[in-house]
Amino acid sequence: MTDLVEPRPVSTEVDEKDLPPLRPPSADNGLAGVLRRRYLLKLLVRREVISRYQGSLLGLMWSYINPLSQFFIYYFIMGTIFRLHEGIPNFAIHIFSAIVIVHFFAETFGAGTRSIVSNRALVVKMAMPREMFPVATMLVSLYHVGPQLVILLVATTISGWTPDLYGMACLVVAILMIMILGTGLALLFSAANVFFRDVGSSIAIINNVIRFGVPMIYSYEMVATRFGRFEHYYLWNPIADAVLLFQRAFWTGSTDRPTVMPDNLLLWGIGMVGVSLVVLAIGQLVFSRLENKIPERL
Amino acid sequence: MAESIRVEHATKSFTKRYQRTIKQVTVAKLRGHKTIETFNAIDDVSFSVQQGESIGLMGLNGSGKSTLLKMINGVMRPDQGTILTRGRIAGLIATGAGFHKQLSGRENLILNAAILGMSEKETMRKFDSIVDFAGLEDKLDTQVGHYSSGQNARLGFAIAIHVDSDIFLADEVLAVGDKPFKKKCLQRMEEVRDSGRTLFYVSHAAGSVRRMCNRVLVLRDGKLVFDGDVDAGIKFLNYDDEPENVEDRDAEEELGADI
Fold it and tell me: In angstroms, rounded to a whole number, what is the distance separating the alpha carbons of residues A287 and A251?
């Protein structure tokens, strides 16, 4: 019990050179501060994972029920009623690989945006990098991607999937892109959400638009043939690229029928990782500008 | 002597917004009401604290004490001026903030310690000592939601007081907990003071300030209006003309006055 109060010389005649420098007490913030305090980040992620579904019967199952319900709705409505089963080979895998990545983004974006307001008690009172919360939310969402990937792998293997190196590169780039982009947007929106809660409400709309702006319930082939020369503008949507990369990784290899993918898909993906980094930088910049006013507005 | 805290012309202003929706703002503007008001919670405050000094920060409610403490702690930045500190800061501010009701005492202890800046090793090393100080050995695996408010406060307090620091901040902390616990806390704060760390203590209780501190700062409406000797500071605030003489009270009553 006594090892904490180290007996120090009571005299205050200390040489200034031996001491740490005088500096602003709030200096250690920002994403760099988050990386420096990985232990705390780990604990926050664990807390979030444990507590997110505490008190619910199905617990962690809920993070699969949501994408699975979406999957079945799209599968039956689009596949059976709109007859996309005929047009798109292995339509189920086409949809599910898209749902995994879209769900990852939507979770990161949505929960990340709410993260500052919902961790109000810590944000207002504790000196810690507040970027911690959007980053932790992103990692929690990433944690949930794992089991969904397993389901996807099982499904693709059953339908005769042959993995390839290019496809695996696509997978890595897609996940990296959503991690960076999701964190950047979560930073931007979580700070804005403190000032106007309208921001949080608008997330549902944005996520809805995204769901239809990616080749999930329709194929890229349709975009290519029906958009004509505007095809390339479609690829300026990074989420659409991430979905295509995921489909390139899992869906293309699972069918013998020819699948249409944009040219230079991996290059587009890498380019979009660059764009995501810019978004992250902007997010960090805005966040640090607004941060000072956050405690008083919560 | 080495400077521990340097505050130069620090100003922090808060914005009060009376209306939030566009409709409310428009209506208020049309009627000629104020929609925004800014005021300085801390107004051009400057002072310097040497390593090892123990400062009592006093003033009425709303005079800016907690805001100043939050800025020294790094939770807020001043809008103008600078605040510089040396070394690690810890303290009894918002102890137990962010305890998660559904997690056990053990999980909350580990998380809270990490938030306060302890590493994994440091937490493991001090774990038993923290639990011992809080006196919660038998309730460690119970959810914090089932703790009484006193037990909650004791756990938060025990963690905070175990963080190694160069500057120790304390904000009207002794208002919670039962008598034996309060006694233990004040004893621990004296240990902190005597170990040569800088102590920054916010209190309304003249008695405990007299016992703990060797210098008093007084804030009024965000301005620093007194900086100097303890007795003169207490006299300045007129806290001295309480019916009984402070010296005559026993230690426990001194603590009890810290509410």
Answer: 38
Tell me which chain A residues have a C-beta less than 8 angstroms from the C-beta of B102: 50-51, 54-55
Asked if A25's CB is within 8 angstroms of B85's CB, the reply is: yes
Among A289-298, B35-44, B57-66, B88-97, name the one with the lowest average pLDDT: B88-97
pLDDT at B253 over 70: no
Distance CA A49, CA A56 (A): 13
Mean pLDDT of B100-106: 85
A11 in a domain, yes or no?
no
Question: Tokens 């001090």 identify what position?
Answer: B126
Q: Contact at 8 Å (CB) between B71 and B89?
A: no
Blockwise average pLDDT, block size 10, chain A, 298 residues: 44 58 78 89 89 73 81 85 83 91 93 90 85 94 89 88 90 96 95 88 90 89 84 89 94 85 91 97 93 81
B251: left (phi over 0), alpha (psi -120 to 50) or beta: alpha
- Tokens for B173, please give them: 């902390």
**Which positions in chain A touch B97 (Cβ < 8 Å)?**
121-122, 124-126
- Average pLDDT estimate for B185-191: 83
Per the structure, the complete domain to which residue A115 belongs is given by 28-297
Do residues B196 and B52 touch, judged by C-beta distance below 8 A? yes
Among the partner-chain residues B74, B107, B194, the one whose CB lies closest to the CB of A127 is B74
Nearest CA in chain A to B6: A22
B77 touches chain A (CB under 8 A): yes
Compute the distance between CA of residue A97 and CA of residue A92 in angstroms, rounded to an integer: 9
Q: Which residue, among A154, A27, A135, has the nearest Cα to B71 in the 3D structure?
A: A27
pTM of the model: 0.85
pLDDT of B241 > 70? The answer is: no
Q: Is B76–A292 a contact, with Cβ atoms under 8 angstroms apart?
A: yes
Helices B105-115 and B149-161, interaxial angle, to 10°? Answer: 40
List the one residue out of B39, B57, B38 whose CA is nearest residue B47: B57
In a domain, A175, yes or no: yes
Number of domains in chain A: 1
A260 contacts chain B (CB < 8 A): no
The verdict on residue A276 lying in a domain is yes
Alpha carbon of A208: minimum distance to chain B alpha carbons (Å): 25
Among the partner-chain residues B14, B93, B115, the one whose CB lies closest to the CB of A296 is B14
> Which DSSP helix (H) or strand (E) runs through B7?
strand B3-17
SS3 B217: strand
In a domain, A213, yes or no: yes
**B16 compared with B212, residue with greater pLDDT:** B212
